[in-house]
Design a protein that fits this description.
Length: 573
């Protein structure tokens, strides 16, 4: 009866994968920025993209990690589709280094002699050096290598007894396409082609499979790596889907070419290596040869493939703008009105964003859904909501710049300056709220009744402010608008003073309340600044120049107009 230590094989596989993960994360921590810079800045031509994709993947030992980086850069618009495909092509060549390391080191010497020193010195180093330092990451790297070799040792010894009594003829009826499918499935499930290759090399070393079967498994491992990138692109932008599809198409076509030309590929390998006596190196060479062949086949058609992918996954740009998208800038008067209305739209979306940040029911402020809600099929995550607000603000700035190219009289120019200042105030306000969101979450979940009460008061202050602001938007009476804005500003200042007094009194009278005064004052200051900026924005949008001047003098008799929202005087705490 053949003995096969399944648990040892499983343990070896787990240790090997853990070692690979440690290697990847350690190298990223040591030189992560450098790798990202190489991929982002040094891939501006097709050949450079392939070369640097090969280099980074060889060093990181993970084509999936590189491919996911590429997805991120394409999604952010930093990298073009053609260069992204070039990096993907190069990453497939770079990943073959794993097979070379395992084939030349893993089975040529006693593996334990490599594993134990790495684990010993690396483990001691982790204790001696502070986490996060370069020496700490170097020791993690050593442990990664140690686990890599230890996992190989387990996998190798787990099949040794089995292989001694194994008759290779028992597996001769296993079709090559089944080996291909097994390699693809294992890699897709474990999301690591290195593991599949290590298992294949261990089986080949123990003569559990023929060289042809091992080659088919390696081809399958290449196809299986596309699973990680496809998962990373699910629900992503069209550019991300294009990169993922190109990765799948390249690996699938390359794999099929290699599979159907397997006898020819093996003949090429046998020109350099005798696979009957040195099958491990032969398999590593085969892995490299068929990936280079794939790159040579695809290199001339990258441009054509990019064109078809763009057609297949077109950009469906969401229309974030309501007023300026269909208003020509040549009609200056209409364009200025459209710009102001779009900024009011920006203000409303920012209001909704802050309501969601503070978990306030939107129906307390808005009766009807806003534009972002109407054009989305599902509720946006809060981070995407902020991103859309930024995109809307960018569109407003771009439209403002276009209007500036027209012939404008002085009054219109001044009106535009006030409007664009209002939009900047609105965005700065939203940014303030975004920054203190974690503090509000802490206040809400705190065991301190005082902090819970302050959290509720912050929410009440915001709703009261928004009611006043929205009244101003709906009115046409300039004097009434002015009165409401002045009252809203006075209320913001009163609430600011009330908060400061409340904190001081509580900290003096209740010693049991261990309050982080610095954080509390900072949160209140940023919140109050944000509220003021909202008021200043509506002042510049709705009041005449004369009324706006009266407002400025009322809140600060020595006030002089300033060009930037961040320069508006702020109360000191």
């Amino acid at each position: 009866m053949l003995e096969f230590d399944y648990w040892k094989l499983l343990a070896g596989l787990g240790v090997f994968l853990f070692g690979m993960q440690l290697l990847e994360t350690s190298v990223k921590d040591l030189s992560g920025k450098a790798f990202r810079k190489i991929i982002r800045d040094y891939t501006n031509t097709r050949l450079k993209a392939i070369a640097n994709g090969t280099l980074v993947t060889a060093l990181l030992q993970s084509s999936s990690a590189v491919s996911l980086m590429v997805l991120a850069f394409v999604g952010a618009g930093i990298m073009s589709m053609e260069n992204a495909i070039g990096v993907i092509l190069g990453s497939n060549i770079g990943t073959t280094l794993t097979a070379w390391i395992v084939a030349t080191l893993g089975f040529k010497i006693k593996i334990e002699t490599l594993a134990l020193p790495f684990l010993g010195f690396g483990g001691i180093g982790l204790i001696l050096f502070k986490p996060g330092t370069k020496l700490y990451h170097i020791n993690r790297l050593m442990i990664g290598f140690g686990f890599l070799f230890l996992g190989l040792a387990y996998m190798k010894t787990s099949v040794e007894t089995f292989s001694q009594n194994f008759n290779p003829g028992q597996f001769q009826n296993l079709a090559l396409w089944m080996c291909l499918a097994i390699g693809t499935l294992i890699t897709a499930l474990m999301q690591a082609s290195a593991a599949t290759i290590a298992i294949t090399l261990a089986a080949l070393n123990s003569q559990l499979m023929t060289f042809e079967m091992a080659a088919a498994m390696v081809i399958g491992s290449n196809i299986g790596t596309t699973a990680t990138v496809l998962l990373g692109a699910i629900g992503g932008t069209p550019p991300k889907k294009r990169v993922a599809t190109s990765h799948l198409f390249f690996n699938l076509v390359t794999g099929l070419i290699a599979f159907f030309a397997l006898p020819v590929m093996i003949m090429v390998v046998e020109l350099f290596v005798d696979v009957s006596t040195n099958g491990l190196v032969g398999l590593a060479l085969f892995h490299t040869v068929f990936n280079i062949t794939g790159v040579l086949v695809f290199l001339p058609i990258v441009g054509v493939m990019t064109t078809y992918l763009v057609k297949f996954f077109p950009e469906h740009k969401e229309q974030l703008c309501v007023h300026i998208s269909n208003t020509p800038i040549e009609e200056v008067e209409a364009a200025v009105i459209a710009l102001k209305n779009e900024i009011i739209h920006l203000l409303q979306e920012c209001q909704l964003y802050t309501l969601r940040l503070l978990h306030i029911d939107k129906t307390l402020v808005f009766e009807e859904p806003l534009h972002f809600e109407k054009c989305k099929k599902k509720r946006l995550p809060i981070e995407d909501f902020y991103s859309d607000i930024k995109d809307l603000h960018s569109s407003i700035i771009a439209y403002y710049s276009l209007i500036q190219t027209q012939k404008l009289d002085e009054a219109v120019s001044l009106d535009l300056e006030r409007a664009i200042l209002a939009s900047r105030n609105i965005m700065n306000s939203a940014k303030n709220f975004k920054g203190i969101r974690p503090n509000f979450d802490e206040f809400e979940s705190s065991d301190s009744a005082f902090l819970n009460r302050q959290y509720d008061l912050f929410r009440k202050r915001l709703v009261v402010l928004y009611h006043g602001i929205n009244d101003v938007v709906s009115l046409n009476d300039g004097q009434l608008q002015y009165d409401i804005i002045i009252k809203a500003f006075a209320n913001v200042e009163q609430e600011d003073n009330r908060f400061i007094q409340s904190i001081v009194q509580t900290s003096c009278s209740n010693q049991n309340e261990h309050l982080d005064l610095s954080t509390l004052f900072l949160v209140n200051r940023l919140f109050t600044q944000a509220c003021r900026m909202i008021i200043f924005s509506i002042k510049d949008l709705k009041l005449t120049q004369e009324k706006a001047g009266d407002f400025d003098k009322a809140i600060d008799p020595g006030f002089k107009p300033r060009p930037a929202a961040t320069q508006i005087p702020d109360k000191k705490i």
